[in-house]
Amino acid sequence: MTHDETMARASPDTSVESSLTHGRWRRSEIVFWLVPIGSYFLLPGYLVLGSQILITALFAISLDLVLGYAGILSLGHAAFFGVGAYTAGLCAMHGWNEPLTGLVLAGALAGALGYSVSWLVVRGEDLARLMLTLGIGLVLYEAANKAASLTGGVDGLAGVSMGKLLGVFEFGFDGSTAYVYSLALLFAAFCVVRRLVYSPFGLALRGLREGGRRLPALGLSVRRLQVRVFTLGALLAGVAGALLTQTTQFVGLEVLGFQRSAELLIMLVLGGTGRLYGALVGTAVFMVAQDFLSGQSPVYWQFWIGLLLVMTVLLARGGILGVVDHLSARLRRRNS
Fold first, then answer.
1. H or E element: which one contains 185?
2. Full residue range of the structural domain in which residue 293 is found
3. What is the signed CA dihedral for 92, 62, 203, 24, rounded to 10 degrees?
4. Contact status, residue 261 vs residue 277, Cβ threshold 8 Å
């Protein structure tokens, strides 16, 4: 193999490299973010549901960064979400009820946990990682259940009282403050992750997803990259968990449950993994469908969610955004 062939194989695709270099905001992205802003004014009766969607979307982005971009499988991502949720709740119950500083502490502790377990997780392959992350999640769930004097056990942490946001805005029952707060944090976190994705670090993550065999030849450590992205994903998940606690002023044991991790995977499959916006779209579709179907059929709504997931996997390769990309490409070919 010649030197030119070697460099061509090691170099990223030209179109990908161009998008990574610029990373400019497209008009469609601006329109996308205008939708939640407009929903605040057009759907005032759904602000509580809207804030839940925004929080879960942040949680989904944290997993998409780990799974969709770095290719690290995880069935226990709720562990970091729960750590953030309990951290914010316990801080508030013990007098530290300022939202922003509590959010920072929750993210820091979840990130520290993610860093400490990442060295164990990245040692294994796909099946081993699934079992390890699942085991970590189950261990933390049972630990929280047993430490009822600290966590409230199955009854949860009741009596969480948050202070005013920025000393001015109170978390009321109408959900307006929670919605704006959640949207602002989601957008800020999204901008940070988007910047990372459209950078050499993001290109390295794509290399991890494709197997990572050539990364050492470029002077990159596969294990260090995996540890970094896993830690960042845990940190963002902890922030999302703390945000849920602050906006609902309650922490239940289910924040650490396996079901929350499983539902998060469903959301990513629906929207499309490794796309960022797929995490947002999948979360919105899943939670709106769940709210509607559970209202129509409180007993059998999970049947329809399962059917939606099966149809997405069979007919929509790459999720909802994968279908959108495919249709857009066909339209461009017809017009050219």
1. helix 176-197
2. 3-335
3. -80
4. no
